[in-house]
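DM from R.C. (forwarded with permission)

"hey, sorry to bug you on a friday — could you get me a structure for this? deadline for the figure draft is monday and I only need the backbone to look sensible"
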Amino acid sequence: MSDERKVVLVIGPLPPPYHGGAVATSYVLGTQSTVQRRLLHLDTTDRRGLLNIGTVDAGNVLLALRHAAQLLVMLVRERPGVVYLPMAQNTLGVLRDCVLAVLALSLRARLVVHLHGSGFRAFHDAAPPPLRAPVRMILRRARRVIVLGESLRFMLEGIVPPKSVAVLPNGTEDLFADAPHRRAGGGPVRLLYLGNLMVAKGFPEVLEAAVVLVRDGEDVELHVAGAFTSAAERARAAEWLERLGSAVTLHGVVAGEAKRQLLLDADLFVFPSHSEGHPYVILEAMAAGLPIVATRLSTIEETIVDGESGVLVPPGKPAELAQALRALIRNPARRCELGRAARRRFESRYSLDRWSAGLDQILTAAAE
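My reply, with the result:
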């Protein structure tokens, strides 16, 4: 491989704010390679916070233009062999990504596109033809298009040749190798929810299920870590939070040691999302050796074996969520069994080293 092809330009945001795409970029930049690869980074972070992501405003337009100008300078100056681009799944983000991709392709860089979510096909099919056409052209010219699970290959059917599609489930760092989950018994059972506090992540169902459990006399505490993404989401949750009273604790956005400690202190992880790519929070809970109650969705079903390393329920069904949680609250031995199985599955499939090796293979193949 020529020296030019060993230069990879990585486009993407870094935390804060914390979300899956930003975490993924940080992992890409830390990828260990089997070749002497040099990684460059075009930072597309919007430090104004999560509320601005995907919105149409002057700030986002100016930010997109600045990123395009920065990319052009980097392409001319550095001549990277490969450009790695995570593609958005909203109109403004896709327009920006199309501009970045066309610049990369025009200067003969090999393009690797990463689809981090599960909503690309729905976005593509609903997009107007003037937007859909350049998206299809870009994806067809990409050397590889990465999806997060076998169940998400359908998003690219009829758009990208099957040989150009690469499946790479997420991986995450192991913060629990020396201290897997072993919380001492006694006291209330601690339920933990990590994620944005929004309908799409199933947060209202978590609150409703917790209210049912507390009303029925279950000895539980609900610990919540994350941020509301809108005033409407906060207002929607207010009544449920008031009814839970002292049984719920809002920790806000957590990272690093604070997140690690929350996972260590929990007894049961709950994440009933409505739509997901491949959520890092589930992998972190698996690494911590926690039993998990989540929803029956695409890559989550590939990650958690229902009844073996967790329990899966339908999305949008708080009564069924409460029932699944109640069964585990009352059965600590079963919680331990599921948690140990989740930890083993994490070690065998979702370690950061395994993910890094998979991405290295994709980037190397794209450069050839």
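R.C.: lifesaver. The chain has a mean pLDDT of 92.
me: no worries. Residues 83 and 348 are 30 Å apart (CA to CA).
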